[in-house]
Design a protein that fits this description.
Layout (H helix, E strand, L loop, with lengths): L5 H16 L4 H28 L12
Length: about 60
């Protein structure tokens, strides 16, 4: 997704974020973004594990072949 940004693009994005949000808000925003990504990753991992443990839930209501 971010393979084509490059160093100069990343510096530009960080500079704009610094101007828009200020230096006091950037650590809070980074922490909130990291927490959100961690929660999303854990949720998707739990959904995948639940589907692997109980595949009959997906086939509920379908007639067997």
């Amino acid at each position: 997704m971010f393979n084509n940004i490059g160093v100069s693009g990343l510096v530009l994005i960080l500079a704009i974020a610094l101007i828009v949000f200020g230096p006091s808000k950037l650590p809070q925003l980074g922490r909130a973004f990291g927490d959100t990504l961690r929660e999303f990753r854990n949720s998707t991992r739990n959904i995948i594990e639940d589907n692997e443990r109980d595949p009959l839930i997906e086939n509920e209501g379908k007639k067997p072949l």
